[in-house]
Amino acid sequence: MKWHCLLVPLLLLSGAALFAAEVKIDLKDAVIVQKNAALKKLAEDLKKHLDLIGSTDVKIVKKAPEGKYAFFIGEAPANAPAKFQPEEGRYLVTDKAAYFYGDPLRNQGVNHAVYTFLEDSLGVRWPMFELISAEKRNPVIISKLEGKFVPELNLRGIRHRGNWYNRMRMGSHNRPSYGHAFINWWDRFGKDHPEYFALNYGRRFPTGLGRQNADVAQANASKHLARIIALCVSNEKVWDQIIADWKAKGMPEYINLCENDAPDLLSCHCENCMKLDVLTEAQKKDWTHALADRYVYFAKGVLAKAQKYRKDVKIAMYAYNASQDAPRREKLPDEIVIGIVPTNFTMPSLEAYVSSWKKVGLKHFFYRPNRHFYYAPLMFPAGFHKHFFDVVKFMEKQGAIGFDYDAPPTENLSIQLSDYLMAKALSDPSISYENAMKHYLDAYGPAAEEVGKYFEYWRKEVWEKRIEKDVNKITEEGAFYNYGRGLCRLLGNYYKESDFVTAGKHLENALKAPGLTENQKALVQKLADFNEHGHLLFNAVANKTDKDSIALLKYRQKHNIKILNGSEQYYGDVAGLKRVQDLAEFTPPYIQTELFWRFKLDPQDVGEKEGWQKDGRKINEWKYVMATNKNWEKPYAHYKQIPKELRDLTANYDGIAWYATAVRIPADWFGKREIFLYFGAVDDSCTIYVNGEKAHYRPYVNPSDWSTPFSVNITKFIKGESPRKPQYIIVRVGDKGGAGGIWKRVWLVSKEKK
Q1: pTM over 0.70, yes/no
Q2: Is the omega angle on the peptide bond into residue 589 within 30 degrees of 0, that is, cis?
């Protein structure tokens, strides 16, 4: 991208000389002229900014009234160029009007012109996605009267960022045609041409990993599996179908060959496809990232067929999942453009990764990571903003034609800072980290220095000194390339409670900076709230106490923050918020019973007659244990405590089974609290015995009973008043069909006596 200050000292417009040093505009006497209906949202956003700055109500009109200062959206001044570079946007401010114009394709040029004006001439910043930092004043005095934006990169994208995406001049031109290309192929061809698709488990149909015996009709009914099914890329009939589809579209410049989002091991297992692979002995077992040879061969085959019809045709494909790592045999022709989708974001790994592809001929590529957001799954200071800025700069230096970050929406201000710096590097590849950071900090006015120190604390003291060297170790802990999950599990190893106090002092100082506007103060306060939330979240995740989880819950309720963050639940309620919500009617602490309870099948339903429930001391004689966080048909595979012989017995078992464990009551509960067992879920019916006595029967009556939590008051069944004395809990579960058992954890809880 190039930023320009246009010097046109002799240009006259409407009789007004344009080489004046500045222009004063009274926003109360201004209008926005928008004739093109496609520019309505842009005009409304310009109005939003001008109203914020001038505390006024600038009208949007189709024709400028006499004597009003006009902001012309999509209209060029006299002597404007007839042609523009792709996405080029220009603005010009005179003492009578301001003009925003440029490349008409998708109106991107006009869009870029407006936001370049707001940034460069009015000093607006967008530091936190939808939040706007702008100095209130009216009239506005503009000294930078003209500007020009021409992006160097063909593709500049950070997805799901709303208005911020346009404001930061994300966009594209001459972009390759890419994206999972065959998601509708099963619907189109599955019935008549199953040979087009991957052979897995001896059949060609949509399937998931480990589903050797899956019912074909059931698999066909899964829309997700149908959308991710891989192709049989050695089959030339597939190539011919792709060419036929391309010709039907008018033979555009690009053919999209990006494979569907299939796991590596669900690529085609037919003999012809497997002959195309060049694998190490280890890769022959799992195919992880190792099948680029077959996919490049496929791309070259389609390319050769297409070149018979159009000589300058190009192919777009992904280096993603099975095709991530560079091929060993195949070489890339110039006509293939690769979307590289790495799973490792350490700089040494990225350097080696790009180098390996360049050795096989890579010349044209765009960077399309879809896991970088895992680096900040929680609303938590992260410190990686310079790292990801450096990644952008590295990829630009290697010749990337563009960037497309697959990034979900987030309230995490660490991600927002990182995205801001990346966006500046995408729109202006010449910008340095220091200048990009300064641009961001401009939003905070007099507080900029202290806010900068806040973010740099997390970068220098936490990310660079503690975390960066262990990124691969942390990611391995998270499994499946999930750094964020690994960090949650190891949070106490890398963060300290004192970090939040030390960093927070910079924000305390920032809030005291003289001359802060209300707007700037609100932005700093949002950072201070973010830091305090991070402090509470750290305590909840690292300490795992009810007290810390409740404190976090109350903070989120007070500040209208979504209670159950998706990542936190995905990682297993790491902050304990669901736990304290579910158990809110009880008095902390909440005591989770053992994960594995003693277990015994009762297919003849003789347990009650034989008195299995009567003597808890005998439960240790039961042969097996079973997990209480999953139905007995499918306990988690990594639980070594559950032997294969028991898994075989329960895999399709419907009937009666018994669970048993022992709990100990805290000393300070006796005489002061009512004591309960809280069952997360039992499928279907159950009878609970405590110390040999029947405490509760829970029938299966309502359709949701199998998934509904319930509690049982066991106070009167407690024996003795010593925390050393075991209290025996035995549960008879009846399952009439489908899944069965205690499948959500059981808690020992209490309430203060009234």
Answers
A1: yes
A2: yes
Residue 704 neighbours by CB under 8 Å, 6+ apart: none
Mark residue 475 as left, alpha or beta (left: phi above 0; alpha: psi -120 to 50; beta: remaining).
alpha
Query: What whole-number distance in Å separates Cα of residue 11 and Cα of residue 362?
Result: 47
Q: How many whole angstroms separate alpha carbon 88 and alpha carbon 93?
A: 17
pLDDT digits (tens, 9 = 90+) for 125-158: 999 998 999 999 999 999 999 999 999 999 999 9
Mean pLDDT of 605-613: 97
Query: 56 burial class (0-12, 13-18, 19+ CB within 10 angstroms)?
Result: middle
Nearest one of 582, 502, 605, 587 to 547, comparing CA atoms: 587
Q: For residue 83, how far is the Cα from the chain centroid? A: 40
DSSP 103: -
Q: Could you tell me which residues are beta bridge partners of residue 100?
A: 73, 91
* Backbone φ/ψ region at 372: left (φ over 0), alpha (ψ -120 to 50), beta: alpha
| Residues carrying CATH 2.60.120.260, the chain | 591-752
Q: Which candidate, 706, 694, 698, 676, places its Cα nearest to that of 612?
A: 694
Q: ∠ CA(183), CA(187), CA(191), 5° rounding?
A: 135
pLDDT greater than 70 at residue 14 = no
Separation of CA 208 from chain center: 23
pLDDT at 213: 56
Q: What is the pLDDT of residue 244?
A: 98
Q: In 126-193, which ranges are continuous DSSP H helix?
A: 163-167, 185-189
Task: Indicate the SS3 state at residue 50.
Answer: helix
Within a 10 A sphere around the Cβ of 517, how many other Cβ atoms? 14
Strand partners of residue 713: 676
Query: Can you tell me the distance from the alpha carbon of 413 to that of 530, in angstroms, rounded to the nearest whole number?
Result: 7
Q: Where in the chain is the domain with CATH 3.30.379.10?
A: 2-150
Number of Cβ within 10 Å of residue 579's Cβ equals 20
State the DSSP code for 141.
E
Predicted pLDDT of residue 410:
86
Domain 591-752 in CATH 1.40.20.10? The answer is no
Please, are residues 91 and 75 in contact by the beta-carbon 8 Å criterion? Answer: no
Q: Which residue from 349, 427, 355, 358 is spatially nearest to 391, judged by alpha carbons?
A: 349
- Residue 677 pairs with which residues in a beta bridge? 712, 748
Which residues share a beta bridge with 4?
Answer: 148
Please give the pLDDT value at position 321. 94
Q: Please tell me the class of the 2-150 domain.
A: alpha beta
User: Mean pLDDT over residues 584-611, rounded?
Assistant: 97
Give residues with Cβ within 8 angstroms of 303, minimum separation 6. 255, 313, 315, 333, 335, 336
Residue listed under structure tokens 């809280």? 678
Task: Give 714's contacts (C-beta < 8 A, 6+ positions apart).
Answer: 675, 676, 677, 688, 690, 695, 727
For the cut 50, the answer to whether the pLDDT of residue 178 exceeds it is: yes
Token pair 């096989």 is found at 360
CA–CA separation, 229 and 648 (whole Å): 30
Instruction: Report the alpha-carbon distance of residue 420 to residue 443 in Å, rounded.
Output: 12
Q: What is the DSSP letter of 160?
A: S
pLDDT, residue 377, reads 74
- Which alpha helices (H) appear in 261-372, and where do they start and end? 271-274, 283-286, 292-306, 347-358
